[in-house]
Structure formats: structure tokens, C-alpha cells
Design brief:
Length: 121
Amino acid sequence: MRKDKAAEDYLEAIFQLSQEGQVTVSRLSDSLLVSKSAVTQMIGKLKEENLVTQPYYGSIKLTSKGNDLGKKISERHKLLVNFLTFLGVTPEIAEKDACLMEHGLHEETITQLLVFIDNND
């Protein structure tokens, strides 16, 4: 999948919501604060990339490929939140800033952040 911030946000949200139960268009819409039609449109794109499945009006499920990517994005987000709070940023701001940062950082930067955090725990 090409780098697409919106698609990554959806995959992350689907991954997280799937940990709590079925993922529906309504739940995803509420989670991302977007319209149901926007969710439907993005789900169509994610289906084309073989990242999700959804039977007609059924729940949304990640494919194996989608699950791996959603998990990776979610872990990257948690890493950034942890790093920012380690620096003294409040959890609320760390959460917002992690959302802004997570899509633009190179994989090498993420790896070095992991090394840094592991060495400073």
C-alpha cells in the first residue's frame, strides 16, 4: 500500500476496534469522526487493495495483510505516545501529536526511537 495517511488511519482504527468486537460502518464513523459515506468509500478502496473484507452490509474485517499493517501502525502510534510522554508531554497532547507524526516518520527513525526507549527504560 502506498503511503496514504487516511488509509492508515482507517486501518489503525479498524485494528483497534476489532480488538473490542465487530467493526461496523457506524462504529468506524463514530471512531474517526467522519460520515458513514466517507467510511463506505474508504472501505471500497481498502477492499481493492485486499486489506479488508466486508460482505454486503456486514462487519468489516481485516485481511491477514490488513491486520499486519493495522497492527504495525497501531504499535507505531503507541511508540510515539510513549516517547512523547517520556519527554514530559502531557498524555492528551502526546496522543494528538503522535497522530500527526506517525505517518511521516521513516522506518529508520521509528527503529531508532525503539532503541532509544529500550535503553532508557
